[in-house]
Amino acid sequence: MEHATPLFTKLYNWFTGEPTIRQTNLRILRIPSDGSRPYPIQVNTIDVASEGNVDCWMVHIPDFRPYWGTREGFHWRDAVQMEVQQHQAQPELTGLYIGWKSFALDLIPISEKTGFCGDAFIAKLPIWECDEHGAVYEDFPEGFVDSQLWEPMVERMHDR
Hints:
two-stranded antiparallel sheet
């Protein structure tokens, strides 16, 4: 199925009853381990439904493997949530934010600047929106970093 056309994939999934996983390209926030200012990056999502990890309920998550590696660095990850309701000054900031960090202490060095194993990441969803294909993501809003909302999210990621 790796090189199948979209039509073939839909037919195969319909005949076999296997669910269709939505792969999405989206903008998320990267918190660099060097302590520099967080900035948005474009990534694809990958299927994690069968992994049994803390975030498998989302079915697909942003692909952090280029930053954490494909094995334990990616597998040993944690996710935290922060809901921003009715942001008056910037309504586009309203949503559910999911932050990920790796805790592969033996594989990825802990940053003295951020306290994380490598980079950390934050993605945005409309408040609690999932469908039969998993999480529904939105591109990360430009005003989030300037609003300083990322700071309480980082604190939550450290508490976990």
